[in-house]
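Hi all, posting the design record for the shared folder.

TITLE: backbone redesign
STEP: 1 of 1
STRUCTURE INPUT:
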């Protein structure tokens, strides 16, 4: 049996519910659920509000009560099949008397997968894959982290037209415009780790918090992580009480990401210097690149990325451009910057 027009409409509504503003971006996936009757009318809606709260199916079933009997549950993610902080949603749907379940994305988490099989074994009709691309896009970072067993890495940097991140004397304030810096804070807020190298902490002393347009810290702050084996001055700003911090005493990008993943972190915002960026690029551990290009030339100074071991143009690193946005800085008395978003090609 294929999905009906009513189920397709319900799935689109479930995707909207899953993306409700204010819902945490991790560590759990965002999920929405809509219960519909045989006429396609909505009986109840629900969505997951973050770790430790009822799952979307449980939320919708609580709203429906006895009206859930005989309904179709339309869910953006395959109902879970395990007991964690909450019980298994697959069994809850069976117990509630739901007749049919339509889900978008199969659960990639082996600890929670198998809900569809449990439902079928109990006599519930099950269909998967409805609007699966939209569902995967909704939870792109969570999906990536679960499927790859490591956090998704976004490398961000600012550069001049000739690829310099700082002048010959070391000055870099400001290569990027105010509009670009505000945009950077917007992107920082989407991540759960800010990662820099030990040299950046020692030399630049960054604060690495997420701030608003008035330079005030937001309520939610990512973990501030510094990577490197050298000892650091505990008075550096990254170790203050403005946000949680951790020193990853390794120079191996794989080891650093493994430790962060063990801490239930799924999205790393890489803002270190050229050496750290090169280490992650050479290890094949950059999944997205965000670069702010300023309309200026320096002719000398620090490169945006260190040596990648490339000696011929044929071996050039060639990420695919996925977005180009002009950030207008005229109101701040600055020239406009261009933000490029790129995706490395996987081989």
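Okay, here is what came back for every position:
SEQUENCE:
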């Amino acid at each position: 049996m294929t999905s009906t027009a009513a189920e397709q409409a319900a799935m689109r509504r479930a995707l909207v519910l899953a993306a409700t503003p204010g819902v945490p971006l991790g560590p759990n996936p965002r999920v929405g659920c809509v219960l519909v009757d045989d006429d396609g009318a909505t009986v109840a809606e629900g969505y997951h509000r973050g770790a430790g709260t009822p799952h979307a199916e449980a939320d919708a079933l609580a709203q429906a009560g006895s009206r859930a009997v005989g309904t179709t549950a339309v869910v953006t993610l395959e109902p879970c099949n395990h007991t964690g902080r909450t019980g298994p949603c697959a069994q809850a749907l069976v117990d509630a008397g739901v007749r049919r379940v339509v889900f978008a994305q199969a659960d990639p988490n082996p600890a929670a997968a198998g809900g569809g099989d449990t439902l079928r074994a109990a006599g519930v009709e099950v269909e998967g894959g409805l609007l699966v691309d939209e569902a995967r896009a909704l939870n792109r970072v969570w999906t990536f982290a679960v499927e790859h067993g490591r956090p998704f890495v976004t490398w961000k940097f600012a550069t001049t037209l000739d690829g310099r991140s700082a002048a010959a004397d070391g000055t870099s304030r400001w290569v990027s415009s105010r509009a670009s810096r505000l945009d950077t804070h917007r992107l920082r807020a989407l991540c759960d780790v800010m990662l820099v190298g030990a040299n950046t902490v020692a030399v630049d002393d960054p604060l690495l918090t997420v701030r608003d347009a008035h330079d005030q810290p937001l309520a939610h702050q990512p973990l501030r992580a510094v990577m490197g084996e050298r000892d650091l001055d505990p008075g550096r700003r990254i170790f203050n009480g403005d946000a949680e911090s951790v020193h990853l005493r390794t120079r191996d990008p794989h080891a650093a990401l493994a430790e962060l993943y063990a801490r239930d972190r799924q999205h790393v915002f890489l803002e270190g210097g050229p050496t750290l960026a090169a280490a992650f690029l050479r290890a094949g551990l950059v999944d997205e690149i965000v670069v702010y290009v300023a309309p200026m030339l320096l002719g000398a100074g620090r490169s945006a990325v260190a040596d990648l071991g490339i000696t011929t143009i044929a071996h050039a690193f060639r990420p695919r451009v996925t977005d180009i946005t002009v950030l207008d800085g005229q109101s701040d008395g600055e020239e406009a910057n261009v933000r490029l978003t790129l995706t490395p090609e996987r081989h």
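COMMENT: The mean pLDDT is 93.
Let me know if anyone wants the other runs.
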